[in-house]
Amino acid sequence: MALSIGLFYASTTGNTEQVADQIAAMLPDRIHLHDIAVEGVVAMAEYPCLILGIPTWDFGELQEDWDEHWDALSALDLSGKRVALFGLGDQLGYGEWFLDAMGALCQQVQSCGAQVVVNWPVSGYQFEASKALTEDGQSFVGLALDEDGQHGETEARLQGWLPQVIAAFDA
Ligand SMILES: Cc1cc2nc3c(=O)[nH]c(=O)nc-3n(C[C@H](O)[C@H](O)[C@H](O)COP(=O)(O)O)c2cc1C
Question: 67: which of 62, 104, 110, 114 fits an S-S bond (Cβ 3.0–4.6 Å)?
Fold first, then answer.
């Protein structure tokens, strides 16, 4: 039987929420949505596989609801879980801090014991710096989305990314 997937996100102006809804609609029987602003993070413990969505705000900072629940997150034991990340940012407006919060989230869940799966190539993006890059600088640690400047790319990016995530979860 396919393992169930918890998709946890938070969103200040609705962009991450909209993408979370899109992802859930692609696999409605398997993905269960949780808005961290309403439910917090504790239910992450119930799932073997997690998708986490985070926008970056205020020059490289965590979105406010993620920030509020950060200590609770750091106290979770996520060992044995597979986690895929998606981040939202604005590469033109905030290119020195593009998707930084996704990088912070990657480090946090790894220190909670999770295995982060599915990197995403940097080609097709233009930015000065990002804390969400892999060590070699060739990839992001999760799916990179920019609803401010590249909204038209999002659907195709999701279609390319989600099957890779499912394959990594089911491996
Ligand atoms: C005041 C402000 C600060 C922002 N800071 C960053 C940033 O540092 N890095 C980044 O990549 N995007 C930044 N963004 C862009 C947001 O991450 C982007 O608009 C995102 O889609 C918002 O997602 P949400 O609607 O789910 O909150 C910023 C946007 C605003 C309005």
Answer: 62
